[in-house]
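Hi R.,

Here's the chain you asked about this morning:
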Amino acid sequence: MTNHDGDYIVLAGSVVTMDAARPRAEALAVRGERVVAAGTLDQARAALGEHARVLDLGGATVLPGLIDTHMHLLWTGLAHVLLDLAGERSIEGVVAATRAWADAHPEAPWIVSADGWEVEDIAERRLPTRDELDRACPGRPVLILRCGHEGAANSVALKLAGLTDAMPDPPGGRLGRDAGGRLTGVLIEPPAIELVRRHMPPPDDRARRAGIAAAAREALAAGLTSVVEPGLRTEELATYQGMRADGELPLRVTAMPLQVAGASVDDEIARLTGLGVGSGFGDDRLRLGPVKVFLDGGGSLGTAYLREPWPGRCGDHGQLLLDPDALRALATGLVKHGWGLGVHAVGGGALDVLFDVLDQADRVAALGPLRCQAIHAYLTPSERNMADARRLGVVVAAQPTMQEQFADRLIAQLGRDAAAAAAPLATWRRAGVRVAGGSDSPITPFQPLRGIWQAVTRHHAPSGGPLGPDERVGVDAALRMYTVDAAYAAFNDHAVGTLRPGMRADWVALGGDPERCAPDELRDLPVLATAVDGKIVHRA
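And the predicted structure, written out as tokens:
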């Protein structure tokens, strides 16, 4: 296969356009960065000329480039340069890996782990303590991170952060303590993690660029041509801006600024509105999305904020990371200046708070154009939540692979019925709510075909079949989650998400037809080629 930049025809076994006016075609005509025709081979030739170059993909199926609406591209890429604990199976393994990484990187001022590993894979089913991390590296600060909601620091890191046994828990977070009240080094939820993280020098611009480039190569090879990157700090946004300016950003990114943990609401409103831009600002390659805000914890961690107490936990509803009045003031202040919010809200109690806040904000400025997101939103959303989401134009940013990865923990904590009802994709859609697909990589796998497969099958190996079969969606609906509806969430639906004349020529060629193969084959369909702006950027 040669690189067909410029004008060319893509000839395939079938083209799934995701365009309601013409759902299927046999050929695409591409001129420069745009699709100019989608139809028969003769129609494609008429658009480009009889002697146009033809890229014959044989029996492949071509789709619009796939879009992940919740991928931490930077975190995913930094896993290549940070301490990687994904293969460890015991606390001793974690200690040994930490010691080995520290010995191999004597110049590193901090030893920091990547997020993409699972406590459930560790025999002890817990994070390491400060004493265990002190054994690994007694002379330098260590910060072990997992999934953005848990961490563990050694004694040096705790001292640098000024954390003592007498310090109270920060609002919305928790500092782990032993029976005697001594800090164990465990940090629960972002407000606690940030007490240590803010003393850590961030990766420099060169490391960030290398991480983004590495993760982008993997994403393109999986068929992704666009991602929404949730929760970026100022220096991280600057790296994306620099890559865009230097022509080094190989796929489309919608960047969501992160609300600074611990900052006052007034300071955050002033910081963001002072930029003079808002959600949707940018171009088709790099654009700003909503502001990322954490409202509650995680379902698999038992810290999501539920309407009823967690079973066996005597009045404990979970963790609200942000006071509802603070969220109300933040939302009202931001929407007046054109900023939407993308709010991490997992539990039903958090969703009730979120939609109450957004309803009030909508009276200040119409929310619809701001494309606000309810992120995750998978534990017991109510009918009222769904009606509010539809009325306010809120997008649900869902990650189907979370259902697969966290199901066993939800069953253990909430029971099988609650786990089966989690991530109610079909019910959200029946309620008329736009649902966009994503992964939350590096927390769960980013391969979009795996997410599509999970949305269609609700696969759960221990059950020997689907978990919550009523919440399965059809293949067309699953594809929409990663194309049409994802493009809308990314503020790029005018440019990508469908293959029709005038749209950007972002496409992916698969070694099978997702609408005609068996559902269990969806996950493993080969990605043969990926193109962005008409340029082939990945070939199998």
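Residues 205-221 form the longest helix (17 residues).

Let me know if you need anything else.
M.
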